[in-house]
Amino acid sequence: MRRREFLGLVGGLASCTSVAFAQQSNRPRRIGILHDYAETDSEGRAQIDALRAELAKLGWIDGRNLTIDFRSGADETEGLRGLARELLLKSPDILVGAGGTIVAALQRATKSVPIVFANVTDPVGGGLVSSLARPGGNATGFTQFEFGISAKWLELLKEIAPSTTMVAVIRDPSARSGGGQLGAIQAVAPALGIDVKPVDAGDGDEIERKLREFSHDGKACLMVTSSRRARTHREQNVRLAGRYRLPSIYAFRVYVANGGLMSYGPDATTPYKRAAGYIDRILKGEKPADLPVQAPTKYELTINLNAAKAIGLVVPPSFLSRADEVIESP
Questions:
Q1: 34-87 tens-digit pLDDT
Q2: What pTM value is reported for the model?
Q3: Theoretical Cys-Cys bridge with 296: which of 11, 93, 210, 266, CB 3.0 to 4.6 Å?
C-alpha cells in the first residue's frame, strides 16, 4: 500500500471513530432508580429532586439528554428483584439504589450495569463492594453511617430520659445491616442499665402490641433503626410513641419532622446530591470499581420540643444546646 493511501485510510478511520464517539456522547442517557420511598412520599421526592437538580448543574437534564426511570414500593425481596428486572428492560446506562437490600437486588439482576448507591450502612459487610477504597465491582456510592452510631442513639435516650431501663428497638431482622445495628446497641446496653427488646419492623400489629405492653413499665423508651421496612410504618411508629408516652429516637430527621422526639444521623438527602457527581463521572467513562465509597461528613441532632411536651418530658438545657435543629412549631 502506498504511503498516501495508507494515510488516507488512517484518516478515514479516525474520522469515523470521531463521528461514532460524538454520536455516542450525544445520545440521551438513561438512569434507573430503585428507591425505598414511594414517588409520592415527600422525603423520597426531596431526595430525587436533589439528585435531578445536581445532575442539571452538571449538564444532565431530565427529558433532554437524560431519561430517568423510577421504581419503588416493594416491601419484600422478591418484589425488589422484580422491580430491578423491570429497570433493566429499559437498558439503563446507570442504576441508582437506596439502601443495602435494594442494591443487593440490583446486583443480583446485573453484574455489568454500573450502580451508584446512597444511604447504605455497611457495603463491605453486606458484600456489595470489596472495600471502601477500591469497590472492585459494578457498584459504588455513599454510606449512611457506621454501626457504632446505634450505640450513640442509646446513649442519647439515656441522657434525655435518665430513668430508662428498657428500650424497644424496631428493626428488620432480614436486613443486611439489621444484625450489626442491634449488636452495637446490645453491646453498650448493660453499662447503661438498659434491657433491649427487639421488635420486628415489618409487622405493624406486633409493633403496636409490643409498645402498648412496654409502656406499662413506665421506664421504657423507643428506638427505630434505619430499617427500610420500619419506614413503611413511619407514621404509626411516631403516633404510637406519643400515645404510649415513650421517649423516642430515630435514624432519620423525617420522623422528627413528622412528630417524633429526636433523631441523630446524617442528612439523608445529601448522598443523592453527591451521587450526581459519580453518575456524571461514570457517564463520561470512569468505572465504579475505581471510585471510592464515601462516608457522611456531618451528623446532626434534631429535637422536636412539641413531642417532648406531649409526653411530659423536660429536655435539659444542656442537651438542647447541643441540638443542630430544634423543631417547635406544631
A1: 998 887 888 889 999 999 999 999 999 999 999 999 998 776 778 889 999 999
A2: 0.85
A3: 266
What grid cell was written down for 247? 421517649
- Secondary structure E strands in the chain: 29-35, 66-72, 94-98, 115-120, 139-143, 166-171, 195-200, 220-224, 248-250, 262-265, 300-304, 325-327
In sequence order, what are the residues at sequence separation of 6 or more whose Cβ sits closer than 8 angstroms to the Cβ of residue 171? 178, 181, 182, 198, 199, 200, 201, 225, 227, 230
DSSP 144-200: ---THHHHHHHHHHHHHSTT--EEEEEE-TTSTTHHHHHHHHHHHHHHHT-EEEEEE
Assess contact for 161 and 220: CB atoms under 8 A.
no
Q: Which ranges of 216-294 would DSSP assign to H, the alpha helix?
A: 228-232, 234-243, 253-257, 270-283
